[in-house]
Amino acid sequence: MGMFDPIKGFGVTFSTMFKKVVTEEYPEVKKVTAPRFHGRHQLNRHPDGLEKCVGCELCAWACPADAIFVEGGDNTDDARYSPGERFGADYQINYLRCIGCGLCIEACPTRSLTMTNEYELADDDRQKLIFTKEDLLAPLLPGMEQPPHPMRLGDNEQDYYVNGPALARDLLAGSSQGQSNAESAVKGAGK
Predict the structure, then answer these.
(1) In a domain, 74, yes or no
(2) What is the number of domains present in the chain?
(3) Residues 45-83: pLDDT tens digits?
(4) H or E segment at 41?
(5) How far apart are CA 164 and CA 141, in angstroms?
(6) Based on the domain organization, do 129 and 158 belong to the same domain?
(7) Where does [4Fe-4S] cluster 2 bind (predicted)?
(8) In angstroms, how far is CA 14 from the centroid of its own chain?
(9) 100: left (phi over 0), alpha (psi -120 to 50) or beta
(10) Which of 129, 140, 122, 131 is nearest to 45 (CA)?
């Protein structure tokens, strides 16, 4: 043991004492997450407002922590929630069990379930950490309280994934400019 070993040990302490301290002001300034961050789940909708979830329960089967509960229901002519024959009548995710692995979103055949960048899920009440379908369902586009028709938009739904929500807003606006923009986007995506 050398005579200067204690001084060498304090060298690290003294070198960091005069550096600027980096402080995160978390509640006021929220951290920007990575684009593919696995945060809170979201049940997506079709551009016309109908739910994408068909109640197939594949996400629940894929979940290794058994955090998802899905119960499917049948659509009727009077009450249509999704474009197919079935919809997710009861949907729950228990965030006390969820490990954020993303296997549920990989298993979803309709891309109904995705994960957002929202990471503030802590609560002091255990019951509030069981999110129901109402908590998870994506909001309707502005101005749409009810879906405009009982079925999905149709042939150009594939273009919604290519061109994003702007195409849906143009289609739903119904304006001549919006309609021409949407038609040109659909023709451009088909090439």
Answers:
(1) yes
(2) 2
(3) 887 788 999 999 999 999 999 999 999 999 988 888 888
(4) strand 41-43
(5) 13
(6) no
(7) 63, 98, 101, 104
(8) 46
(9) left
(10) 140
Count other Cβ atoms within 10 Å, centred on residue 171.
22
Prediction pTM value: 0.65
Please give the backbone phi and psi of residue 148, each rounded to the nearest 5 degrees, phi first: -70, -25
Residue 14 domain-assigned? no
| Structure-block tokens of residue 120 | 């503030």
**Alpha-carbon distance 75 to 153, whole Å?**
17
Binding residues: 53, 56, 59, 63, 98, 101, 104, 108
| CA 90 – CA 53 distance, rounded (Å) | 11
Residue stretches of the annotated binding site for [4Fe-4S] cluster:
53, 56, 59, 63, 98, 101, 104, 108
Q: What is the pLDDT of residues 120-138, one digit of tens each?
A: 999 999 999 999 999 999 9
Is residue 29 one of the residues assigned to a domain?
no
Q: How far apart are CA 65 and CA 67, in angstroms?
A: 5
What CATH number corresponds to the domain at position 129?
A: 3.30.70.3270
- The closest alpha carbon to 112, from 100, 104, 101, belongs to 104
Instruction: Give me the residue label for tokens 């960048």.
Output: 117
Q: Is the pLDDT of residue 148 over 50?
A: no
Same domain, 95 and 131: yes
Tokens 């809170």 locate to 40
Give the residue numbers spanning the domain of 109: 34-140
The percent of residues above 70 in pLDDT, for the chain, comes to 73
- Say if residue 106 is in the same domain as residue 129: yes
